[in-house]
Amino acid sequence: MTRLALIRHGQSQWNLDNRFTGWVDVDLTDKGRAEAHQAGQLLKETGIDFSACFTSVQKRAIKTLWIALDEMDRAWLPVTRAWQLNERHYGGLTGLNKAETAEKHGVDQVKIWRRSYDTPPPPLDPASEHNMSHDPRYKLYNASVPIAESLKSTLDRVEPYFEQEIAPKLKENQSLIIAAHGNSLRALIKILFNVSDSDIVNIEIPTGNPLLIDLNDGSIKPSAARYLDPSRAEALPPVS
Question: How confident is the model at residue 5 (pLDDT cuts 50, 70, 90)?
Fold first, then answer.
C-alpha cells in the first residue's frame, strides 16, 4: 500500500509569540524540536518503508524533517526542497501580533484575512524588513515571491508542483513524507480529499503530528487517513 505522511513543522518562535509568520524564516522552539522528535518516533513505529521526502525552503519545516528523519534512522532518504511548499504569504500582516491586529482592525476583518478562501490580506510594503524578494534562496530556486496570498493563491502554486513532482511518485507506489506548513498542507488536503472552498478554511492542522494517508495503489485517491498522535488529532475530511 502507498502511504503519504504530511507533517506540519513543529512549533516555531512566532507560533509561540502569536505572530503572523508567512515567508519569514523563523526557527523552531524547544517545544517544536520535541514535536519533531515525536513525529519521527511515531513514523518509525509505523514500519513504513518511505522512498523520498519533500519540504519547503523554510528552516522550520526543513529542521522538522531533519529531526524526524534522524529519529527514524532514515537521514539518508532523498529530500527535495521546493519554495512552492512554503507557507502562505501573509502580506502586510507579516510579523504582527494576531491579537493586537484583531484589536486594531476588528475580529471580523482579521478573520476574513486569515480564513477567507480567496481574500488576501493587505500587500506587504516593499520597504518592509520582511520583504523576501532579495533573499538569495529565492533567486537560487527561481521563485516568484508574492506580496500577499489568500489560501486560493497558495493552492495555485502548490497544486501544479504537487501534480508535476509528487503525484507521479505516489502513482508509482512510492511512499513519501512532506514536511511543510499549515496552509500549504491545507492546500494539499483540499486536493487529495476534494474539499470544498467553504469547508477547507475550517480544516486545522496540528504542529508536529504526522497525518498518515493511505492511498489506493496507482492513484492519489485516499482510502484512509489518521493522525499518528490521537491525543492531538484534528477533524479530517471524509474519505469518499
Answer: very high
